[in-house]
């Protein structure tokens, strides 16, 4: 169950939201309620919820300011904003600060709530997977990996987006440099080609999933960014000298 904080200054609105969440049968447990953003920030510090469902217009501190304050203090809880049509500009601002979505208060129903919260649940599951993957990246360190800030940006991007399609052109556009120059500079600064670095990140993530989940080899290959089973097995064997299935069996034994 994901720990949930409700922030709404109208008591009847909080009660209505509680009932909707019960009817929606979603994996979210309400661990606290607050009537304004300032009170909510204190509860975020105390309860460390996974998700905050917050009204936007509230006394003392509004929902957008609450979201900004939580992010500035380093809290990663997901935010779903409650808004009226006239407050849509505030909802747009909240999305810019990283809110997962928003719900229209006057038309909110069970299906709409369930759909919004399923998206949040998916984001939280992805966050947990990434946290588990971190321990499989021994090269991650507190200090910058190279003395070149733009190469460090590329490294950070790869480690966060390794499961997505990554191209040399896209990385070059990210730091606004020529593609061929980026390729040569990356190898000079890291001792690895871009292709090898990306493959290594994907293989490390695959090793974690092979040992800590029961997912099929096919599912794992797709999840870490390989386009098909055969290519995944080929690259995994090149790096580990055994197939994914053999690695899983050896680790379990």
Keywords for this entry:
single chain; 253 residues; alpha/beta; Rossmann fold; Arc Repressor Mutant, subunit A; 2 domains; 5-stranded parallel beta sheet; 5 strands; 59% helix; 11% strand; phosphoprotein; Helix-turn-helix protein; transcription
Beta-strand content bin: 5-15%
Helical content stands at 55-70%
Average pLDDT reading: 85
- Main sheet record: 5 strands, parallel
Number of domains: 2
Query: Helix- and strand-based class?
Result: alpha/beta
Give the SSE string. EHEHEHEHEHHHHHHHH
Estimated radius of gyration: 22 Å
Structure at a glance:
This protein has 253 residues and is α/β, with parallel strands linked by helices.
What are the SSEs and their pairings?
Layout: E1 2-7, H1 11-24, E2 28-34, H2 37-47, E3 51-55, H3 63-72, E4 78-83, H4 88-96, E5 101-104, H5 110-134, H6 149-161, H7 168-175, H8 179-190, H9 194-212, H10 217-223, H11 229-240, H12 244-252
Parallel strand pairs: 1-2, 1-3, 3-4, 4-5
Helix pairs in contact: 1-5, 2-3, 3-4, 7-8, 9-12
